[in-house]
């Protein structure tokens, strides 16, 4: 767990002293209406069970909640605790402190609040039976059991599992209290959420970062034959610095005692993405650094993940950089480097081990909305070394005990276009394991006024694949559970619920793939050149699917619908 600096320790000691004789001290002396606020109300628990279930009311005042174990303050969170009936229950895994005394101290709690007395010690998460069945729970998009998520962090394959860490507020529906959540998957599709692995400490909340396997034990944090998985993250205190944590079992991680490993450089420097650079036998970090209002990516190197030197920097993107090499058109002898930022804009260029030289201007990334801070996996096995990316999908899920989600995993490639090399995005093939039922309606030719060929298909979770030559049709219009996806043949553009994107024909045909879940729609066009993610909540009762053409006939070489099953087992 987090180490506590002497100042924090002194503060906590004084708190404890104050509690010695009186449990609840009144901050204000006189008025009785509205309820008085108690300073540092506390409740002690002898830990015998796995969780503390904590009542949350969205929008309630945020109160400082300090968790002390055997008198030591371990973490302070700002929590919208429910003074009366909660909207939902957050949980804190307290199993690490079995047999110890845990004290929750809540500052400025109204005297008539039931928040502390309602906290339950239990071996189960309250209302656990509903988890993954909630009406707005993405069924093949990852979201956390409880609370808020934003960026994916530390995406990595390690010891036979894909790991996804992520920015997590375990105690709130909105952003805050940044922890690293953790989930694992055998196949990128079925995820199992484990507990949070990094909690805020005296260096600050745990902001975004990456993970690597230190195969050669350059850091000394592993053991012979037991390489360490090293998490590289930003501690977003005052100032922001870069830190590491390590573990060898894929489950528990220990923060490095010598943190930070990169001191403050400038501005809100953050979001380290680290990779092994084989030609130079060194680690390379790309780091977002705001230099006097200019967005730069700094390139740092290290022999051991602990000692870092700035090598170069480039003015480019804001936040969450990623940097990787890809073959062009699959040709291993012709590779280029790609530098991207949180918006998913990117540049293609070359890297000599010190400096990145862009060979393209900044190119647009996704063409939809609500997709941000994507990251690619490190250490993917296999000779093909797929480059797989997951992004934060900003699906707002009001009324749910969780909020936001992740995109589906996509494979990135570089492909030659008349304008130069461009990234393509393709849903990973593992998603096909979710197909429960299929309808094949192609090949077919549609004319204006043709009966809807998809009328027989109905599905809640949808994958739709089409390939067509628009012929003399001016528009090909798909309906997927109330979402409208239009191909404008003249402009060679696709529009997804009015988000327009270029979608060039290839060999006279357009390939389209549409995924629809309970809170998101993701559309891929033009062999992956165009990716249009859109937060979208279909009406529960509307399972309709349709396609029609306007202005002329279009020839479909493929038209398939798959009903998908939930990825939550
Ligand atoms: C991007 C971001 C990162 C930061 C994190 C904090 O969404 O702002 O730059 O590390 O979120 O949660």
How is this structure best described in words?
It is built from two helices and 44 strands. It is mainly beta and 569 residues long. The strands form ten sheets. Strands 33, 34, 35, 40, 41, 42 and 44 form a seven-stranded antiparallel β-sheet that branches. It starts with 5 loop residues before the first helix and ends in a 5-residue tail after the last strand. The N terminus is likely disordered. The chain binds beta-D-fructofuranose. The site of beta-D-fructofuranose (FRU) has 14 residues, from strand 11, strand 15, strand 19 and strand 27. The site of beta-D-fructofuranose has 14 residues, from strand 11, strand 15, strand 19 and strand 27.
